[in-house]
Amino acid sequence: MQEELDHLLQQYEKLVGEKLHLFTEMLSNMREISRNNESVICADEEIARIKTNMDFVKRDIFQKRRLLDDNTSIMDELRRELRELDDELLMKDQRIAEMEDAVKCKDCELQDLEDLIMHKDRVIGQMQQELLQAEDSRKKENEEKRKKEIEDLITRANQPRKPYIAIKGDPVDEMMAKHINECNYYVPVERMAEGHYMMGTKKVYAKIMNGKLIIRVGGGYMLIDEFLRHFESEFCSGAPLSASVQLQGGGEIQIEGRQGTPPRKSIGGGGSPARSGKSPNRNK
């Protein structure tokens, strides 16, 4: 019996030792498991962090890929523009070459024009000399003409003024002759018909009213003296006391004197004549 108890006790002690050993191993395993759990937790956190970083990297890669696509499109567009610019530059170079050739041609034409201008200048110089000679000849001819005009004017001024002769029996014409012959300046008068006259370039009608000679003007009448004074600038073609004539080629001659007396002459001024006009003409 004692032996069985000892044997049981030994078995119990053996079992307790085994349990203790198992407990120790279990504790060691639990510690290992705990360490492994901590490692797993750290690994999970690291995995989560890595996943987050990977998401960021994926988004960054996606954005960069889109940016790369955009840049690729831009590069393609720039390459196309560069090709167009190269083509345009080539055309410009060709145009420049053509323009340089044209400039060379224009330089040749310019040289020809300069030679032509020099020739024209020589011709113009010769023509100017000829023109000066012709001008001198014309001045001499004008001086000769002026001298001749002066001589003719002096000759006409020395001629007596022919009086207007009235038709006998025509009282209007007789009174017209009296006023015309007493006028201080010469009036060209021609009798067209009874009462109708051509005075200078004016056709007039004259009649006697209340013993006075009147001239029809417009819708009314005017005394002959008033009529002559009013139209003096049109009728006056000469004066017995003074005359002024514009000569051909410039200059002016003034003839002063009375009928039957030698005239005095002055050219280009020299006094204020009483009236101006052409030399007296004869009545028809």
TrEMBL record:
UniProt keyword annotation of Cytoplasm present: yes
Domain GAR: 163-235
Organism: Halteria grandinella
Region of interest called Disordered, as start-end residue ranges on this chain: 254-284
UniProtKB keywords: Coiled coil, Cytoplasm, Cytoskeleton
A Pfam match: GAS2
Cellular component terms (Gene Ontology): cytoskeleton
InterPro entries: GAR_dom, GAR_dom_sf
Gene Ontology molecular function, alphabetical: microtubule binding
Protein name: GAR domain-containing protein
Coiled-coil residues: 68-151
Places the protein is found: Cytoplasm, Cytoskeleton
